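Bug report

Summary: structure tokens for Chitinase domain-containing protein 1 differ between web form and batch submission.
Environment: batch mode, default settings.
Steps: 1) Submit the sequence below via batch. 2) Compare with the web form result.

Sequence submitted:
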Amino acid sequence: MGSQSYIFVFFVFIALLSESTSTLSKADKNAKKKDKATKNTKTEIDVAVTADEILKNYMHVDFKEEKKFPNPTLGYVTPWNGHGYDVAKWLAHKFTHISPVWFQIVPKRDTEPPTCTIEGTHDMDQGWIKDVRSNNSDIKIVPRFLFEKWSPPELQQLFGDELLQERCAKAVIDFLQRNKFDGGVVEIWIQVMSMSQGSAVRDLLHFIINWAEMFQYKDQQFILPVPPPLDAS
Ligand SMILES: *[C@@H]1O[C@H](CO)[C@@H](O)[C@H](O)[C@H]1NC(C)=O
């Protein structure tokens, strides 16, 4: 896979996540509405798009209507909000990606050489995934992974050791393939940038490129959430 196609995908997903990420809970229909509002003001929404209207209408969902927002649309589903699981099934046709917030990537110290392992697998629900897919056969199920329980020295080791990065990526990719997922949302940017106060950005980019290439090589989508800079208005 050439680096050009990688960069394309990388930026598409940054765009995707900044524009159309929403969590499937009450509060977030706000965000969804806002997306729609900014993209399709005239055709879709027959009220003026103002903060007041959004606050008034965010609970409204048209179940029958087709997806109008043309870009990829990702929805997070959290185990602590059962309603989100239903919304994802009922409105599967309005999403291109659903990301169940289930898994953590944790260091595995008791092996030589060290690697990482996946926790949170008790939350995995294949029956629900089947239901979601039955309402949208094209939908991509891309669970979110959080890096957890990494001490600063362990993170440093991860960034400094390319072979460790590859072992860990392989563990994640094997897990995704074994469970018939389409990729993963890898939450690492905010954690590392805040922990290192920005100084780890080069190592982080190197890590991300490495992982994204390994994911794509195995036909798994790699999605990286990147927040706006703190000084963005
Ligand atoms: C598919 O969506 C329809 C309409 O929103 C809903 O009634 C149905 O329960 C969904 N199917 C499954 C398997 O959840």
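Above is the batch result. After comparison, the two runs are identical; trailing whitespace caused the diff. Residues 63, 89-90, 131, 134-135 surround 2-acetamido-2-deoxy-beta-D-glucopyranose (CB under 6 Å). The chain has one domain: 3-223.
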